[in-house]
Specification:
The chain is mainly alpha-helical and about 170 residues long. It is about 65% helix and about 0% strand. α4 runs antiparallel to α5. The longest helix has 28 residues. Bound molecules: zinc ion.
């Protein structure tokens, strides 16, 4: 979908709601995963980001009240994996994922969200859409910075966790 093709507030809000709900759900999964992984600090970070996503989604829906929103394909804003789409890291969310990987995954997708809003803010033919999108760029930029900060300061122990999420007793 080309951001320049988003010409109405209703279209934009439908996309934004899909993006924010996807983000909130993935963060809840990441938080659950970090709890299993005994990493309460990173779990808490992800819960906070899940809350932001949900808050944004509800703000978007409040703004959309009275508008008829077009349907968005549910996969349009699915998170993608740092290693490429074929590695299916999203399915791996249900298993153990080391914190640095989880943070990389989150950062990649926050950047995608920010870039989507930035593209709309630059390319939509509607001034109103450009204005709302620009507000959302600023918010997403804060999430990107928060994750970058965590990645830069992740305790050293997290860096030496095994990279392989397979359980140690799995058959070779
Ligand atoms: Zn965000």
């Amino acid at each position: 979908m080309s951001p320049g093709a988003i010409a109405t507030v209703a279209e934009f809000l439908a996309h934004a709601a899909a993006l924010e709900w996807e983000s909130a759900e993935r963060y809840e999964e990441l938080a659950d995963n970090m709890e299993v992984h005994n990493n309460p600090e990173v779990a808490e970070l992800f819960r906070k980001l899940a809350e932001y996503g949900e808050l944004h989604a509800r703000e978007v829906e409040a703004r959309a009240k009275g508008l008829e929103l077009p349907r968005i394909a549910p996969w349009a804003f699915q998170w993608s994996c740092p290693e490429g789409p074929e590695t299916q890291c999203i399915e791996a969310l249900h298993y153990l994922m080391p914190p640095h990987r989880a943070l990389d995954l989150a950062l990649l997708n926050e950047r995608r969200g920010r870039d989507f809003y930035a593209d709309v803010a630059a390319a939509s033919p509607s001034a109103e859409v450009r204005r709302i999108a620009a507000e959302m760029v600023a918010e997403e930029e804060q999430h990107v910075r928060l994750l970058e900060h965590w990645i830069a300061h992740l305790p050293a122990f997290a860096g030496v966790l095994p990279d392989d999420p397979d359980p140690p007793n799995s058959p070779e």
